[in-house]
Amino acid sequence: MNINTLYETSSGNVARQEYIYLKTAPGLGYYTWIDYNSDGVQDFDEFEVAEFQDQANYLRVPKPNLRYLATTRVKFRQAINFNFNQWKNKNGFKKILSYFNNESLLSLENEQSRIGNSFNFNPFNFDENKMIGLNLNLRNSLYFNRNIQKYSTSYTFGKQRNKQQYFIGTQESNTKIHQVEFTHKFATFWLFDLMGKVSENDLQTENFNNRNYIIEGKEIQPKITFLQTQNKRFTAFYHYKNKANSLENFEALKQQKFGIEYYYISLKQDQITANINVFLNDFLGDTNTPVAYQMLEGLQAGKNYTWNLLFNRKLNSFLNLNLNYLGRKSENSKIIHTGNIQLRAVF
């Protein structure tokens, strides 16, 4: 058993921050602008985190601000890991436990407004009237035959809550997942993977009802890999997603994804990764909304295609060359090509 605990508390001041979005050179930003109401005006609620690099043309920059709020912050992190592998040579109940591992993590950061000399020492004090920011992450993973690719199975439960306060009001997101993964190697060269997932995602904003949603999702992904050698493998997979929004316009998505991938590492440590994906999106609802962008993950309704090529070469002991190319095509759009070259020096 391995236990790791962190507790930290502090007080200070946080700016009552306002933001603006500035356009950057293509691909060097983090956000994309979508003119949902077609008025040509860049409204604050029309910016989304870009799903693809060619769309990332805006940065969010804080305005100069002289308004501050007195705050008190408490941070707590608890990790507990159980590894029973050392009992693999035992008998009975200890022998059975030796096949299992369990990892648990609770991470919590709670920030509240400070009144006078008050101080918050309790990280689990979720007083909504005082709360300015909250970041909660709870995760537990139970493994059977971990990392040995012989009927290896894992079950993961995760829960996240994030609350932030902007000048336009508060925004809170919640995520909950249940995920099961199974991996088994058979006939020497074949590796089979199966993933199943049930999730719930919701977003609540104080002043933008068109951005609110509660999306329930179900996913399944079988994958088969041919292990030609230790340095070469070929993978084919199918991924099915079913998403439904239970707020506002009740959007629904049934997505089928087919893909193949090739991975290769040469004796000189050159690395090549290539993949091709086909998406079939059966979407019910208006596609020009923030909820649709979230559900479709930046793609369009109907058929979509993506392909990617990554090449990495180690030129010498301290220089690495990376070439990355991404292509994308939807039914109602032209082909979009994105590429970048990176030369990295490691001292």
Can you describe this structure?
- With 347 residues, the chain is mainly β.
- The protein has a single domain (78-345), classed as Porin (Beta Barrel).
- It has helices at residues 93-97, 290-296, and strands spanning 2-15, 19-23, 31-33, 47-49, 58-62, 68-83, 100-113, 131-144, 152-166, 169-186, 190-205, 213-229, 232-245, 252-265, 271-284, 302-314, 319-330, 336-345.
- It has a 14-stranded antiparallel beta sheet, with helices on one face.
- The two termini are 37 Å apart.
Give the key terms:
single chain; 347 residues; mainly beta; Porin; 14-stranded antiparallel sheet; two-stranded antiparallel ribbon
* Number of structural units classed as domains: 1
Percent of residues in helices: under 10%
Strand ordering within the main sheet: 1-6-7-8-9-10-11-12-13-14-15-16-17-18
Reported for the largest beta sheet, the result is: 14 strands, antiparallel
User: What is the CATH-assigned architecture?
Assistant: Beta Barrel
Task: Output the radius of gyration.
Answer: 24 Å
CATH class: Mainly Beta
Mean pLDDT: 91
Q: Output the number of helix runs.
A: 2
CATH topological fold name: Porin
Percent strand equals over 45%
Report the order of strands and helices: EEEEEEHEEEEEEEEEHEEE
Main structural class:
mainly beta
Per-chain topology:
Layout: E1 2-15, E2 19-23, E3 31-33, E4 47-49, E5 58-62, E6 68-83, H1 93-97, E7 100-113, E8 131-144, E9 152-166, E10 169-186, E11 190-205, E12 213-229, E13 232-245, E14 252-265, E15 271-284, H2 290-296, E16 302-314, E17 319-330, E18 336-345
